[in-house]
Amino acid sequence: MFELMISLGAVVALVGAWGLYQTHRGRGGLRELMDRASDPAAVPPETAVPVDSDLVRRLYATREWRETEQLLSPDFVLVLPDGRRAGAQALEESTAIMETYYVNPHATVEAIYADFELPSVLYVRDVARMQPLRGKPFDARAWTRLVVAPCGTRIRELGPTNITTEAAS
CA-to-CA distance for 122 and 7, rounded, in angstroms? Predict the structure, then answer.
């Protein structure tokens, strides 16, 4: 059930618990919210180069919250679309909401980049096929900025995210 937890980490970081709550109160769809809240700071700088990260791949492969939580630093921060910062609980709550409104959501890591000037900052490119319980499916492609804790084995910060959506083919 928590496969979504980090498989859609980029989407969750973008939307956050507040955005999902508003979406479910009828103020627009998640797709519209994604398009409005995208942050260009999530896109890697031109000097970034492709890298691989076992930490990122483990994060995207977690299936349960307890697994995900072990990969987050004690001072973990989720950067919300409006720039506000929240803790791990917001990540857990927004994921639970996503699981309620989407059929088997899943994201795949396409690329990971790092800038040698800031090696603890990673930029993850992923793609997710989003199938709402009601409505048409769409693809969400995202860049998400991650900050790795000094220990190198935990995520200190998730977000911002830059998402583009398109009708599923």
Answer: 16
pLDDT tens-digit map of 112-151 = 999 989 999 999 999 988 888 888 888 888 899 999 999 9
Instruction: State how far the alpha carbon of 159 is from the alpha carbons of 103, 115, 125, 150, in Å.
Output: 24, 16, 12, 17
3-state secondary structure 67-119: HHHHCEEEEEEEECCCCCEECHHHHHHHHHHHHHHECCCEEEEEEEEEECCEE
Closest to 146 (Cα-Cα) out of 167, 166, 119:
119
pLDDT digits (tens, 9 = 90+) for 3-40: 434 434 444 444 443 344 344 444 445 555 555 557 77
Task: Look up residue 127 and give its DSSP letter.
Answer: E
d(CA 97, CA 68): 17
Give the whole-angstrom CA distance, residue 165 versus residue 34: 8
Are the C-beta atoms of 123 and 103 separated by less than 8 Å?
no
CA neighbor of 164 nearest in space, from 6, 11, 35: 35
Q: In this structure, how many other beta carbons lie within 10 angstroms of the beta carbon of residue 69? A: 15
The pTM (predicted TM-score) of the whole model is 0.79
Domains and CATH numbers, the chain: 3-167 (3.10.450.50)
